[in-house]
Write a structure and sequence with these properties.
72 residues, disordered C terminus, 6% strand, binds FE2/S2 (inorganic) cluster, 2 strands, 39% helix, mainly alpha
């Protein structure tokens, strides 16, 4: 399961907690409050899905498998 931004050691549950605490609703707002997703960027689609669904653990998305960088 994918549960965190590994590069910045931020769990999705932690990011979700920040969103709730500050009453954030968008990915961009979250980025203003917490540093994550700026290295390999592979966590970005998962964080967006977290915001959409409220889930904090995901099966690996097929498009993020492999070692290649995921373009946005
Ligand atoms: S896992 Fe989030 S930037 Fe690499």
């Amino acid at each position: 399961m994918v549960t965190q931004c590994v590069c910045f050691h931020k769990t999705f549950a932690e990011l979700q907690g920040v969103m709730r605490h500050h009453e954030l609703t968008t990915f961009e707002e979250l980025k203003c409050h917490v540093r994550f997703g700026e290295n390999c960027t592979r966590c970005v689609p998962y964080v967006k899905k977290m915001i959409e669904t409220g889930n904090t653990a995901f099966e690996v998305f097929p498009e993020t498998q492999g070692n290649e960088r995921v373009s946005q």
